[in-house]
């Protein structure tokens, strides 16, 4: 993986969702926080959180607070493989068990210290496509 452009740690800068009708939303707010790391050993991990997350009222949050915290988080880890402009995350574990054991395919583009990962999902009923675009900045120190 010597020529792997994804190697290293990247800091989340933005996360934009565009629906089939063209409406855009910032699912995790205007200033989401997070990191994705791609290792030389072929393993990857990602964690992200929304801006302005709630602070729980205590060490054991009530259900409503736990739900709010879950809804403002994404995290998973596994291995990865790279193809032409594509990276596939082979998910070993995830904050959402539906993803565990799946392959999550992203297109990627690296421009200098910027990495753009794009995921497209098609709704089986409407056949409309939703596009998720996360922009990351290389961590250099």
Features:
141 residues; mainly beta; Lipocalin; 8-stranded antiparallel barrel; 1 helix; 9 strands; 6% helix; 52% strand
Walkthrough of the structure:
It is a single chain. This protein has a single domain (8-138), classed as Beta Barrel (Lipocalin). The chain is 6% helix and 52% strand. It is built from one helix and nine strands, in the order E-E-E-E-H-E-E-E-E-E. The protein has one helix spanning 63-71; strands at residues 8-18, 24-25, 33-38, 43-49, 73-83, 86-94, 103-111, 114-122, 129-138. It has an eight-stranded antiparallel beta barrel with strand order 1-3-4-5-6-7-8-9. A hairpin with an 8-residue loop joins strand 6 (86-94) and strand 7. The mean pLDDT is 94.
Q: Using the alpha-carbon principal axes, give the shape.
A: globular
Number of separate strands: 9
Helical segment count: 1
What would the average pLDDT be, to the nearest integer? 94
Tell me the layout of helices and strands.
Blueprint (H helix, E strand, L loop, with lengths): L7 E11 L5 E2 L7 E6 L4 E7 L13 H9 L1 E11 L2 E9 L8 E9 L2 E9 L6 E10 L3
Antiparallel strand pairs: 1-2, 1-3, 1-9, 3-4, 4-5, 5-6, 6-7, 7-8, 8-9
């Amino acid at each position: 993986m010597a020529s792997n452009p994804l190697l290293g740690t990247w800091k989340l800068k933005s996360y934009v969702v565009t629906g089939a009708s063209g409406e855009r939303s910032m699912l995790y707010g205007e200033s989401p926080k997070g990191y994705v790391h791609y290792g030389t050993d072929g393993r990857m991990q990602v964690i992200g959180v929304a801006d302005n997350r709630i602070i729980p009222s205590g060490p054991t949050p009530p259900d409503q607070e736990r739900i709010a915290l879950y809804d403002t988080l994404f995290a998973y880890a596994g291995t990865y493989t790279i193809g032409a402009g594509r990276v596939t995350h082979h998910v070993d574990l995830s904050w959402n068990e539906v993803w565990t054991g799946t392959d999550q395919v992203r297109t990627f583009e690296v421009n200098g210290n910027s990495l753009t990962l794009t995921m497209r999902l098609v709704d089986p009923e409407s056949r409309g496509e939703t596009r998720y675009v996360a922009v990351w900045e290389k961590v250099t120190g």
